[in-house]
């Protein structure tokens, strides 16, 4: 059963409105017409014991069923004193209307007043939630106000800016919450006024009028919060000074100070700290002006230092170029040596006073501006100058010796090897210097945190790709090879021994050359990046990094030219045999590098090329192929249209490849090879002379099922290849014979 409890308030003499009669007391109407006595009794006991206010009267519509009505009359008389409140039992709605007017009763009790309990609960819940929100906001506002009053104005821009930002953020947060609260209050007002909006002729009941008044009261409480403002500070005009020039900063400071004084003169409510801040800003402006003057003096000195260092470096570069461009063959004569010596001494005289200053003078004159980076630049410049002066002195001594010698006009003496040795040593020193510049000026800078933002993504963690094993090459030449070469200064004809002693270490150039295609490809991707350009600018190099990355390839090639010159001038001398052996070894390295560069370009071979043994020869040939199927020989192509194949002769196999078109630039322009056929050296034979052409020879399988007619570009090339293949086959035959002897020995034993 649904228990409906209607509560109304009456005055002592007459009924009145809810608002004016709040202290009079309550009359409770209990509708138990469809209920039992036991439930009615429990309700009366709970009301009498727990009702929170002054209860004047309880009107009960007793159960309508005959049995329950009888029980109610009987038991009510027995327990009447237990209820502790005045209770009147009513039999009908007409009896109820005698006590309470219809206008104050709801429709369920025969009255005319509209009432929805669900709506009343909804309004009451929303009203309490709104009241709690306003209370919380008021408390937080009080705390924020105390913080604003107690916070001391900061003494520097950063702290003041942070404080202003924090306070502004909190103020904006308060305003957002107030906007949300006001919106919630407006929705609550609309819900309370909903009956009047639906029916303009109706009116609000006392509960609705009270709720409406409560919401308006909270609206009045929110009005001060909506006008929240922060104390005046001098921070905003200075927030963006980091984007201004020094002069603009000074002008801005002067403007802010003027605004501060105007603010002081125009308002009596400004904190006295504003005047203090104005004085501080004025002092800051004066200090900044002095600092700018000092900084300008330092920058002027730095520019002068860089200019003088640039002059020294340019003098050194031009000097190296002059030494390298002197024709050594012409210096073999007395006239040529004297001419070269005169050129060298004239160049030394061109050094002006600013190029002759010493490093100690630099430390003393520019001590106040030298940082670690500038010190390194000065140190490198003077090391370069000292190295060049040493090269000049060596060249001058050699030229003086040559100029002092008397030449015979009838029987000219063959040029001596000293001049070649001088060139070898001077170019070796210059080579070591260039490698050091590249490693320090480019490679080391890739690990410099200050340069990291300039490195493009394609270049990050790619130092080993771009520079290969240049560091290993530099260490060998700087620590070992250059010093070893210098020990042969007085006996240049014996320098071949130095090359032979260190020929194993010179194999490191093969690794560098193998990596060169990858290095050049990466260089082309990053050549225009800011990092590369900035490094070149610091080094003051006229040539790009790619020119210096080519230096190791040029150097290993240069050795064989110098050795040939040395052999030419050392015929019949002690050490000529070692010179020839050194030349052969260097040529072997160059050939191995060249062969391996072709070998790594092979595509489509599914096995491991390393299993085929050492690559002995490689070259391009015209090839005709015949395959025997049963008793019939089949030509793959017409005999007048041979296949163009590139052959790779290994210790264990002969590979036939097709050369592809060259593409790209630089090292990437090298050809590539598509694998076509493999013949094991253990299962082939050779015919030295093929019919029809002295440049042809045949390679065939043991069963002669496959025959390849190979045509070289010349008889000389053919002879070299046939000889090498014969040598391999003979070696295999002797190895088999040796194995047979071993087997026979074991059998006889």
UniProtKB/TrEMBL annotation:
The keyword Phosphoprotein applies. One of its GO terms (biological process) is positive regulation of Rho protein signal transduction. Keywords: Coiled coil, Guanine-nucleotide releasing factor, Phosphoprotein. Residues 278-305 form a coiled coil. GO terms for cellular component: cytoplasm. GO terms for molecular function: guanyl-nucleotide exchange factor activity. CDD domains: RhoGEF. Residues 614-730 form the PH domain. Residues 416-596 form the DH domain. It holds the Pfam family SOS1_NGEF_PH. Residues 1-117 form the CRAL-TRIO domain. InterPro entries: CRAL-TRIO_dom, DBL_dom_sf, DH_dom, GDS_CDC24_CS, PH-like_dom_sf, PH_domain, RhoGEF_Guanine_NuclExch_SF, SOS1_NGEF_PH. PANTHER family: GUANINE NUCLEOTIDE EXCHANGE FACTOR DBS, RHO GUANINE EXCHANGE FACTOR-RELATED. Belongs to the MCF2 family. This is Mcf.2 cell line derived transforming sequence-like b. It comes from Cyprinus carpio. The lineage of its organism: Eukaryota, Metazoa, Chordata, Craniata, Vertebrata.
